[in-house]
Design a protein that fits this description.
The protein is an alpha/beta fold and 134 residues long. 23% of the residues lie in helices and 35% in strands. The strands form two sheets. A four-stranded mixed sheet has the order 1-4-3-2, covered by helices on one side. The chain has a four-stranded mixed sheet with strand order 5-8-7-6, covered by helices on one side.
């Protein structure tokens, strides 16, 4: 059974530039690295792992972004999307309300390294977060 997101991996031709870009976006430095191959960040309320991998280790190299999308919860979709765009990302999917006023809002970008980065305002995430012991 799936129990929760453990690690999300993105690929980049320029590993150092990707590391720097994500460090600026996230406001933290990677906590783990493999020289020339991998950087890993711990982020968010549950310290999820975000890995940046040298594209030469990718199982396939598609010509365009696509595949599975992991939606990262954010508190303000519009503000986060704007920050991503000012950092050089391109809109993949514009801000879209889901569920007719239920509070689910998504958007996604393609980062400067060809990965889809999806963001979301998710009321269920906030309910779970509010219910966890401190």
């Amino acid at each position: 059974m799936l129990r929760g997101m453990a690690t999300v991996n993105y690929y980049a031709d320029d590993l150092e530039a990707a590391k720097d870009w994500y460090a600026e976006l996230l406001g933290v430095a990677p906590y783990f690295s493999v020289p020339g191959g991998y950087y890993e960040f711990r982020i968010g309320d549950y310290q999820a792992e975000l890995g940046i991998i040298n594209r030469k280790f990718a199982p396939t190299s598609p010509d365009r972004p696509g595949g599975q999308m992991v939606n990262w919860h954010v508190d303000d979709v519009a503000a986060t999307l704007e920050k991503l765009l000012t950092m050089g990302a391109q809109v993949y999917e514009p801000i879209t309300e889901r569920g007719n006023g239920t509070g689910f809002v998504t958007a996604s970008v393609v980062d400067p390294f060809g990965n889809v980065l999806a963001i979301m305002s998710n009321p269920h995430y906030l309910e779970i977060l509010a219910g966890r012991p401190e």
